[in-house]
Amino acid sequence: MTWPRATRVGHVGLQVPDLQRSVTFAQDILGLRLVERRGSTAYLTCNARHHELVLVEGDQAGLDHLAFEVADASVLAQYRELLPEAGFELVQREVEIGVEDALSFTAPGGFVVELFCGMAQNQPVHYDTIGARPVKFEHMTIKASDKPAMEAFLIDVLGLRVSDRAEDAISWLRVSSEHHGVSVVAADEDALNHYAFQVDGWASIGRTGDHLMHHGRGFLWGPGHHGIGDNYFCYFLDDDGAIVEYSANILHVEDEARYEPRVWPDEPLTVNRWGNPPPPAQFVDGAHPLVVPVDQGVVP
Fold first, then answer.
1. Phi then psi for 22, rounded to 5 degrees?
2. How far, in Å, CA of 173 to CA of 185, rounded?
3. Nearest partner of 48 among 103, 105, 108, 126, judged by Cα
4. Which domains does the chain carry?
5. What is the pTM of this model?
6. Which of 22, 40, 227, 257 counts the most CB atoms within 10 A of its CB?
């Protein structure tokens, strides 16, 4: 079976028990802008794209879905035909606003994956924010109880490429030239470890630290400099307990034909080249649970 491929990491959809509280956090702390709120769903962005984060009100906090963009409706039609043939169960949901079309299905481990095309590019490029405004959604890191199956799915079905591995524990995979759009961690449970936004440089990470401090918050880990991916990082918690990363200056794979993935050793400089404190247990153990997706139906 010959699969098409995804072209971009889209966003995460998070289920939240208090939609207004989570929207306020996204605006006031993350520096995002509310595009639209319809019924139980809020769409937020940080650039011209219609949305880079989806919040869906539900009974509990957790991961609603992972989203990837494909080139156009013809590619989406191929997936709509091939996925059931390969044994993937389609999930019937209303198409998110702001996109031309989309489909959802269940991936290994129970992750709900959304594929979409035709994201509207109709949002104002400039807007006021008191937070360190991100540039775009960058990547997500998931925990997988069957890491080989999840990795095979991402490579074979979605067309991602392996950038690097840390022995058998973690894999970093890219959708575009950026070093990783998805990281997969071997674990006992299937969950979201963290979701990441790209910021425009080190100054934005410093500004984020000050901004968190003024709001009585702080970093969970960092700031630091990852060996894998070569990006600067900081991590903190959102209001629903999920880990957020702000990432700057991620490595780009400029020559696909000549790039060779590395296997990194399990040592402190792999995760932080500066050698300052290693990730705390709260980060390593972080597991935002999978939840039954809430129908994102549009309310007239």
1. -70, -35
2. 11
3. 126
4. 8-121 (3.10.180.10), 136-288 (3.10.180.10)
5. 0.95
6. 22
